[in-house]
Write a structure and sequence with these properties.
The chain has about 850 residues and is mainly alpha-helical. The chain is about 60% helix and about 5% strand. It is built from 29 helices and 10 strands. It has a 4-stranded antiparallel β-sheet, sandwiched between helices. It is elongated and about 105 Å long. The chain starts with a helix and ends with a helix. Belongs to the resistance-nodulation-cell division (RND) (TC 2.A.6) family. MmpL subfamily.
């Protein structure tokens, strides 16, 4: 007797002899795991995918070393104000009143605010130090004084920089403007603290007469964004979980047809989820977007295991066998299949541990633990609960409900399921060739699938939100402002959500040629960069700050000229003296955004032409970093996102091959150990390859991009495919070993296991497919892909495996790999 046989024999003994003790132990363990649920934290958004990327490290350095961060600091925010004319007296007063209330609330920790209204007010009263004084200056100005002040402010460029592109200097009119807010918080401030302050700031903005927060005054910042992305998870759960519960319960009723069996199955599912949640809490693994997908996966495997146990048990009971004997036969057969399914699925999941992304590594760890818990619960607890329930019911006048195996006899399901077996008798070679060709074509077609990674990828579909707005509470989604902000940036300011790339100059810029080298990087720009003329990129750096200051300050201009030996307006000697003068001027704040305080680094921001493909722009700035003689690192959100996409593609392919390699090796060793024939694992692997090929092809066909959320699908699909084929193949092996001819063994297999596979597929596909209702497109796509993966695996097990068995039986012997020559002998010897 092998070690596996001894283990199963021990499970048989405790399940049939001490079921109540087993139930009690599992209840106590569940209570212990439940204690870890309260320790789970939440982590959402894209930051979780950008760790340890050089471009991200450069971005972090910019946040630390410069006063102006790319895309705004995590502790800053903007209020986008709209009006018929944001330069009218009333609108200017409203803007300054908003600034005054924000600055005066000490609990908000607002360090400063800035706006176009500030620029106008300072022209009216240069001594106005506070937003309240500037508001009074605007309120008290005559119409002529106000028009003159706007014209003077416009001459400095302060108006155009902060109002929408519809700004008309002649009419002194624009319909949108941005108010900047800077919070007095350390760089180490938690995201929860930033979110709290920005959320409270929304209420202050709304308190200003004439402001309607979320409509004509939208506060936007990292804290608000993270809060709304987290709310997306909640909204998705509120919409998806009830729908999933209804569908899952409906199909479980169809599959179990017995309230007691269904209660046992549902309690086992709940137990699996609690153990997994508890493990996350105790392990300190935060709940993220990626981990939302773990629980549908656990439901898929748990539902599959539960239906197979009950269905196989009912088959035995139908022969007249008693409770104990029926359950022993069930566990003897199915625990081997469950073990094979679990280990191969874990291989697919653990391959994600090699991912460069923490969320994907967490997904692999949590999902692998969850699948292992599912094996233990459904392999031990559910059989024990079933034995205890049936013994208890025998002595009570409780009527029998559904007791027949799903798909047994001459039911409609049985007739439909026989299609694969019938085809294996008519044209097995054609079936195998057709499905193999379909998988190959799907895989080849799928190599052109798109990749996507950006903050916008986590945003909901606007059309779907509008549809859901009609739902009653609590199903109606939250009001999200970031979609409006995105639209305003694109339409009013002609900016994409991310519209620039940056070079981080990681060297001292105090040498005489430092500014000249920075200036040279803007000459002869690539086609993807916006330009100011035929030979200069539209860029911002300490050089442009110097040029701007020199154009408005004759004394500073003279200093620049004295230190400009080439006569091109760029200082090339006594650079420190130029820096000192610049940082002592009113342009100091702007300069500190492009040169570090110790002058040990600098940055150059390049504007991207509208409509340019992100990957092309990133390739150009990377090439520029290679060509320049400066020690420069390309960075910015676009560069970071593109780096994530590169890693994502590499990681997905690596995980796929790792999962397949580990699965192939394990199945070969397992069948060599259990059945005495290693190559028998081939029957399991061929359908899996077809499943993966069809799934990848479907991604491109349905325009579903590869993202950090759904990247694990490729490796997980191997585990899902093996789940279905192992059940079919293992049952066939048992029947074939018992002495049945191939055709009869296939008949018995499809009549028993085929019904359980069908019930599992219907329940799982509906439960996972309901993610299509999710507000977040990434989760919607994941649900669709996972449901398709299960459906393809089911079709391959029902349609391909019977024909594959027949083809192998006919032609495998030619190369010494026939079904005979090991299996029957192993069965006769009592081997497994």
């Amino acid at each position: 007797m092998t070690a596996v046989d001894r283990l199963i024999e021990e499970v048989d003994r405790v399940v049939t002899e001490r079921p109540l003790a087993v139930i009690a132990v599992f209840v106590l363990v569940t209570a212990a795991f439940a204690g870890g649920v309260t320790g789970i934290e939440t982590n959402a958004g894209t930051d979780q995918f950008t760790q340890d990327i050089p471009a991200q490290r450069a971005l972090d350095n910019i946040d630390e070393e410069f006063e102006t961060s790319i895309g705004g600091s995590a502790t800053s925010a903007q209020v986008i104000v709209s009006d018929d004319n944001v330069l009218s007296r009333d609108a200017l007063i409203r803007t300054l009143e908003t600034q005054q209330r924000l600055e005066s609330r000490s609990t908000l920790r607002v360090a400063s605010t800035s706006s176009h209204a500030d620029a106008v007010a300072r022209q009216l009263d240069p001594t106005a130090a506070s937003a309240a004084e500037r508001r009074d200056a605007v309120a008290e100005a005559t119409p002529a004084e106000l028009r003159s002040a706007i014209a003077d402010a416009d001459a400095t460029g302060a108006i155009a920089a902060q109002v929408s592109v519809d700004y008309n200097p002649t009419a002194q009119a624009a319909d949108t403007a941005i108010v900047g807010i800077t919070y007095d918080l350390p760089a180490s401030a938690t995201s929860a603290r930033v979110t709290e302050l920005q959320t409270r700031s929304v209420d202050v903005v709304d308190s200003v007469p004439g402001n309607k927060a979320g409509e004509n005054a939208i506060l936007f910042g990292d804290g608000v964004l993270q809060s709304e992305i987290t709310a997306l998870l909640t909204d998705t759960a509120i919409i998806v979980f009830p729908a999933a519960l209804i569908l899952i319960v409906g199909f479980l009723i169809f599959s179990y047809r017995d309230p007691f069996d269904m209660a046992i199955g549902l309690s086992a599912l709940l137990m699996s989820l609690l153990w997994t949640f508890g493990f996350m809490g105790y392990a300190g693994i935060p709940f993220s977007n990626s981990l939302v997908t773990v629980f549908p996966l656990l439901l898929a495997v748990g539902i599959d295991f539960g239906i197979h146990i009950v269905n196989r048990y009912r088959e035995e009971r139908a022969t007249g066998a008693g409770i104990e004997r029926s359950m022993r036969t069930t566990t003897d057969q199915l625990l081997i299949a469950f073990l094979l399914v679990t280990i191969t699925t874990v291989f697919g999941l653990v391959s994600n541990v090699a991912s460069p992304f923490d969320p994907n590594r967490d997904f692999g760890i949590v999902a692998a633990a969850g699948i292992t818990f599912t094996l233990i619960i459904f392999g031990v607890f559910l059989p024990a609960a079933k034995v205890f329930s049936d013994r208890w019911r025998e002595g009570l006048p409780i009527p029998d409900f559904g007791t027949s195996a799903l798909g047994a006899g001459g039911s409609r399901i049985a007739r439909v399921l026989r299609v694969g077996v019938d085809l294996s008798r008519i044209a097995p070679v054609a079936v195998v060739a057709l499905l193999l060709l379909g998988g190959a074509v799907g895989g080849a077609y799928g190599t052109g699938v798109d990749t996507e990674f950006s903050q916008e990828a986590f945003f909901p579909d606007q059309d779907r939100l509008e549809t859901y707005d009609a739902l009653p509470e609590p199903f109606a989604p939250t009001e999200y402002t970031f979609l409006d902000v995105l639209t305003l940036f694109e339409e009013e300011f002609e900016q994409d959500f991310v519209g620039s790339v940056t070079l981080y100059v990681d060297q001292s810029v105090r040498d005489d040629d430092a500014l000249e080298l920075i200036d040279r990087t803007t000459r002869n720009p690539p086609d993807t960069f916006a330009t100011t003329d035929e030979r200069r990129a539209q860029a911002t750096s300490v050089v442009t700050v110097i040029e701007d200051r020199a154009s408005r300050d004759p004394e500073f201009a003279a200093l620049v000229e004295r230190n400009d030996r080439l006569g091109n307006g760029v200082p090339d000697r006594n650079v420190d003296e130029v820096y000192d003068a610049l940082l002592d001027s009113s342009a100091a704040g702007q300069a500190r955004g492009y040169v570090a305080a110790d002058r040990g680094s600098a940055r150059i921001d390049f504007t991207i032409r509208p409509g340019v493909d992100n990957s092309e722009a990133v390739a150009d700035v990377r090439d520029l970093a290679e060509r320049t003689s400066l020690e420069a690192v390309p960075t910015g959100d676009l560069v970071v996102n593109e780096a994530v996409i590169d890693l994502l593609t590499e990681s997905a392919i690596r995980s796929l091959f790792a999962a397949f390699g580990l699965t192939a090796l394990f199945l070969a060793l397992s069948y060599a150990y259990l059945e005495g024939k290693a190559v028998y694992g081939f029957l399991n692997l061929v359908p899996v390859l077809v499943t993966v090929g069809l799934l990848v092809g479907s991604m491109r066909l349905f325009d579903i991009p590869l993202t950090p959320i759904n990247a694990p699908i490729l490796s997980v699909s191997i585990g899902l495919g093996v789940d279905y084929t192992v059940h079919f193949v293992h049952r066939f092996v048992d029947e074939y070993q018992a002495g049945l001819p191939v055709d009869e063994a296939l008949d018995v297999t499809i009549g028993g296991t085929g019904g359980a596979l069908t019930g599992s597929m219907l329940t799982t596909v509906s439960g996972l497919g309901v993610l299509w209702l999710a507000v977040i497109p990434l989760l919607r796509d994941f649900g669709v892909l996972l449901a398709l993966g299960v459906f393809y695996a089911y079709l391959c097990s029902i349609l391909l495996v019977p024909s594959l068995v027949v083809v192998w039986d006919r032609y495998g012997g030619v190369v010494g790999l026939g079904l005979d020559g090991g299996l029957r002998e192993a069965g006769a010897d009592g081997g497994r």
